[in-house]
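User: Some background: our group keeps a shared notebook of sequences we're curious about, and every so often someone picks one and asks for a predicted structure to add to the entry. Today it's my turn. The entry only has the sequence so far, pasted here. Could you supply the structure so I can complete it?
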Amino acid sequence: MDFSRDRGSAIGAACVAIYVTAVTALALTGHTALRTSADTHDTRSILSIWLPAAAGIALAWAVRPRRSATDPFAADSPGRVARQAWMLAAVAVAFAIAVHLLPGDGWFLLLKLALFAIPLLARWATVREWARVDTRGRWLRPLPAVLAFAGLAAWLQPWSGGTVPAPVVLVVVFLVNAVIEEVFYRFWLQTRLESRYGRWPAIALTALLWASWHTAIQGGLGLPLDLAAVIANQGVTGLFLGYLWSRHRNPWLVIGVHGLLNAPITMLAAALS
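Assistant: Of course. Here's the predicted structure to add to the notebook entry:
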């Protein structure tokens, strides 16, 4: 009996139930316009958030990679990979809780650094495993998915203006958010979960864990609805980021897309003008 496949199916079913419950709760309470940034209370419709992700996933699937992604943990002990995956998941849960409990912005940076440092110090993960990914032949084929996602997001979710961060702030935000989060959630956590439990259970669970911490910075409806809102927002975007990584294995493109989420093209243009 393949226990890993059975557990993967159970994980996938649980994740689907969570997504459906979240969207149902938002629909029943009339909260179908969601905040898309911690810097503003402006909202966007669920459809304008889902369309870019759906288009990106469809094109990432339609354009086959030249070389299929291999399992980097195929030669490792299955038990060891599973333990690493669940310890990383525990760190993700602890990070989401800590962001809620510790007041002030100063703690946030320290928590983000801890999110990156703990797996390295505990030897649950290494920088080498993702930084040396062979990206030859993995740039052009995922580009249609990236461009579709970025183009639709810019059109349906335009930057509403306001204070433009200095370029140095944008760089720091890019490193702290896009780089650290993608390394931890997609390259470390998702890849291990994928090795043990299959592609979509890993993508969905990682997306939910990544989305969960955003309730601390994009809340206001009460914790249950805040969780539902980030699942319908970041949780769906996380499905695209996770599939892009799983299907095409180009870490730099995934980090770049995440960077555009935090600093839209229109904001970058204003900051650099």
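Suggested note for the entry: The radius of gyration is 18 Å. The mean pLDDT is 90.
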